[in-house]
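Input.
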Amino acid sequence: MFGRSKPIRIAVFGKTDLGRTRDHNEDRFLVADLTRKAASLQPDVRQHDVGPRGTLLVVADGMGGAAAGEVASEMATDTIYAHLLKTWNAEDEVTPQRFAYRLKEAVEVANASIHAHAKAHPEVRGMGTTSRVPDSRRRGVPDHQGPVADAATGGSGRADGRGSRTERAP
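Output.
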């Protein structure tokens, strides 16, 4: 991907733990081969060579407990994946900068979707999720980390109203 001659091999697995506090799991993760448009934990996706369109790894941890954090984390992972399939796979310019732009855009779309859902359903006011979308290549493309949406903050995803952020993780 992005001019590499030797392919990068992805080998991952995901598992979540309910923990001791909640009676339901609010975590959600996604492993997707964006080149083949496949997302699952089946062996052909969890272990694959990164193709020209890359690999998407997302971990979302719902917030809010009774406020439907599990719904927010599912909406975030599904929306980010669907948006990248639609926009990134249609992109003519396959560069790290365009991928970063499309990833940021996907997170913003997920944020707006979660906020709109919470606004339309007052019983889930305050629902939200954190997300982590690492750069599988670790070169040139920032990770996204941080809140995706929290309806209690006006949909910005942050209590300070500054919106979602895209940055390099340590």
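Residues 38 and 125 are 33 Å apart (CA to CA).
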